[in-house]
Amino acid sequence: MPLPPSNAPCSPYRPQQGGAMSEFLPMAILVFLLGLGGLETAWWLFTRQAVSLALLEAARAGSTQHASPQAIAAAFETGLRPLHAGAGANAAARLQASLQRHRSQTGGPPWRIEILQPDAGSFRQYGSPNLPLAKSTGMPAIDNDYQYEQYRLNPVVPPDGPTIYQANTLSLRLTYLHRPLLPGIAVLLRSIRSETGGYADEAMRHGLLPMMRYLQLGMESHPLRWPGLPDGRVVMGAAKLPPAAEAKPPAFSCSGGWCLQPQQAITDPTPGGPDSGGSSPTPPLPDEQAPLPGGHGTEPSTPPGEPLPGEDEFPVCETGM
Length: 321
Fold this sequence. Notes:
Blueprint: H1 19-64, H2 69-79, H3 91-106, E1 111-117, H4 120-126, H5 132-137, H6 147-153, H7 164-167, E2 169-178, H8 183-192, H9 199-205, E3 209-218, E4 234-236, H10 243-247
Parallel strand pairs: 1-4
Antiparallel strand pairs: 1-2, 2-3
């Protein structure tokens, strides 16, 4: 059986050189991206575990030292040293260099711990001015001793007020700024950030991922009403948003190229448009197609027997047998 000439326009015999490479290249790119994603995920999980353990150490220090912000901050940064262990400079120097880099990049603290409990209401309700600690420090204090007896003497609690057990519980909420390994993650964080102007939003604006952790631990000493640290690393109570963000919430919850449905403000200067306060007339609809019997779907606009638009007949190759 003679073979058709190689220059035939419809010959099924074509060279396959380079076909394996063209099939391998997309799969290689996919495997490479999956490997980078696995590396980033492993680093994120390791950082989250180390940060959680550091927060536990901070809570232990606070529970035994009257919820002191200085003790909480020192214990937390000491617990972060495993993240910066390595050859060369010691872990403490590496940690301080990393924290200073965060400060210079964001203009704020590299991490923040909010002392949610005991709050101001707990000190108003259970403050004991007769405690020697309260007299010596001049700060409100809550009695940590004989909590069951205190509860029996004062079992009535306001509807939104804490119990004596809750007043002697240290509740911490941590926001840690995690630096991704891959530069593309930083670009993604900048594009999906919100516009609230809060601490986490500012971190995402600089390509940092805010990592939130929460922990509760019973107090082992009398809680004191300390002021927060001046640098903002430890604050008393939940941190508030800037006044501008509280007065005017963001119009849209998502902005940037990674939103599923980017929204824009609609302006219609024509009379009767949405901005003029009137009702705009309904635009004319295109010619509707006749519905099928039963009210389901519509009939095609192309008469039967004719090819639909875009349908082309492919050439048929005939080979001799």
